[in-house]
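Q: I have 222 residues here and want to know how they pack in 3D. Can you give me a structure?
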Amino acid sequence: MASPSQLLIDGAKIVLIDLLLAGDNALVIALAVRSLPPKERRLGIILGAVAAVVLRILITFVAVQLLTVEFIKLVGGAFVLWIAVKVVSDSEGPKEEVASAGHFLQAMGYIVFADITMSVDNILAVAGASHGSIGLIIFGLCFSIPFVVASSSLLAKLMDRFPVMLYVGVAILGQVGAEMMLTDAFVTRTLNPSHTLVYVGEAVGVIGVLLVSWLVARRKTA
């Protein structure tokens, strides 16, 4: 059994890991709820963060196996790229369409699925730092909720004030999605991509989602 001092050190490690790695999650939430009305946006941020953390706690217990399962990150990365394009398209839609209940549920789906697929590496880091302590895992992940909620709210407001921030966020998702796909167990086993190829793939992902997002938004506006 770990000593109180060791538990304190492990707990501090997990909190630090969660805070350092929560940026991607906050970005996804901010992008997903940006086109919602203010009241639904606040609710979506809170519910999305809580739901994602609860699912992440459950997945942490099998995190070691997740990274070895082929196609997990490949499919997840492709979904992240799709989200990057979809949030731009949704933000250009009519207000009555944007404010619909179906759109709110769609945003929640984006948040939960993207958070889980983007957080596999993060989950593994937390699992390692916890040394198998379920209590520490839950404590660290729950501690990160207020940070994610606050960050998501700030990012969503910045996107409202500076629309170009939306495309900055989309570009980041393009990089993340491409990196996930190129580091999937199946891709690394069959292609064994070099670091240079991964960087090139990430650049292509960024340029690709920006171009497609711009074209989709332009067509929808027209």
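Q: Anything worth noting?
A: The CA atoms of residues 11 and 135 lie 9 Å apart. Residues 95-99 have pLDDT under 50 and may be disordered.
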